[in-house]
Amino acid sequence: MPFPSLLAVFAHPDDESLSAGGVLAQHAAAGARTAVVTATWAEDTQRAAELADALRILGAGAPRMLGYADARAPQSAPGSVRFCDAPLDESVCRLVMHIRAFRPDIVVTHDAYGGLTGHPDHLHTHRVTTLAVEAAGLDRLYPDTGAPWQPSALYLATHPHSAAQALGAHLVREGRAMYSVPDERVTATVDVSPWLEQKIGAVLAHRTEVKRGALPGRLAALPPTDRAKLVSTEWYIRRDLVPTAAPQPQWTPRG
Questions:
Q1: How far apart are CA 217 and CA 236, in angstroms?
Q2: How many CB atoms lie within 10 A of CB 103?
Q3: How far apart are CA 9 and CA 203, in angstroms?
Q4: Phi (first) and psi of residue 82, to 5 degrees
Q5: Burial of 243: CB neighbours in 10 Å, binned 0-12, 13-18, 19+
Q6: Phi, psi (rounded to 5 degrees) for 10
Q7: What are the pLDDT digits (tens) for 216-238?
Q8: Mind listing the UniProt keywords for this protein, alphabetically (predicted)?
Q9: What's residue 255's pLDDT?
Q10: Which of 40, 34, 96 is nearest to 65 (CA)?
């Protein structure tokens, strides 16, 4: 059975590689259509160029950007409103346009916590994506953005309690809150070690974040074996939408 087409929606350049780089590479390697929508940063910035490099490594096509400013980096999109401050209806409409244009079988985004760190842009991306995947299938909503299209499922990139402590020790700055979910909430545990080279390469392509010591930089500083242990598994919570005839991901939970 062919792998379903996949559209990932994340807040910042690098989130796609860190949260879902393995699954993106897996689907691309299987011949499925894959793409990424990024909510923040402008197309003419250095981080957008790094995003393009990361997506080439993952096989996820060219960047698709909503063009809003990062909540903590106004220079990310000069003259544009912060994503968190943009009118909700406008943001949903922009994302619906991408969903209808790409027509994915499944959509992947941040969980309701916004991942381990709970970044406000991650939280807002979850909200906007959750609304957009429903709206995209309704013909009377945003009729000027293309023909309706309903993905079959939404997958939320998350972290179970059982893995959070080890991850947080390396990935979350000391003193910051850390958010994870009960293990039983996780519906897909994906071993992405066969695509580890692509995933790590994509993470390290975000050179600005490596240089400033953000999460890609902290991963870059680890010994290769430790780095591999931290990023060789991805976790997701599935949310079923209106069913379509699309095939489902061949993701086999580990024991």
A1: 24
A2: 16
A3: 16
A4: -65, 145
A5: exposed
A6: -135, 165
A7: 999 999 999 999 999 999 999 99
A8: Zinc
A9: 36
A10: 40
A 10 A CB-CB count for 150 gives: 18
Total count of residues recorded for the chain: 255
- C-alpha to C-alpha distance for 44 and 225, rounded to whole angstroms: 35
Q: What is the mean pLDDT of residues 183-191?
A: 97
Cβ-based neighbours of 171, under 8 Å, separated by 6 or more: 116, 215, 218, 219, 230
| Alpha-carbon distances, residue 138 vs 116, 131, 144, 220, 236 (angstroms) | 33, 11, 12, 44, 26
Tokens of 48: 């957008």
Res 40: pLDDT? 98
| Residue 166: predicted pLDDT | 79
Strand order in the sheet with 64-68: 64-68, 34-40, 6-10, 106-110, 153-158, 233-240, 188-191
Model confidence at 192: pLDDT above 90: yes
| Residue 191 CB partners (closer than 8 Å, separation 6+) | 232, 233, 252, 254
Is pTM, for the whole model, over 0.85?
Answer: yes
Backbone angles phi, psi at 65, to 5 degrees: -120, 135
**Of 38-52, 98-112, 160-174, minimum mean pLDDT range:** 160-174
Torsion angle of C-alpha atoms 21, 22, 26, 31, degrees rounded to 10:
10
Contact call for residues 128 and 39 (beta carbons, < 8 A)? yes
Beta-sheet strands, E only, within the chain: 6-10, 34-40, 64-68, 106-110, 153-158, 188-191, 233-240
Query: Are the CB atoms for 245 and 157 separated by under 8 Å?
Result: no
SS3 call for 224: helix
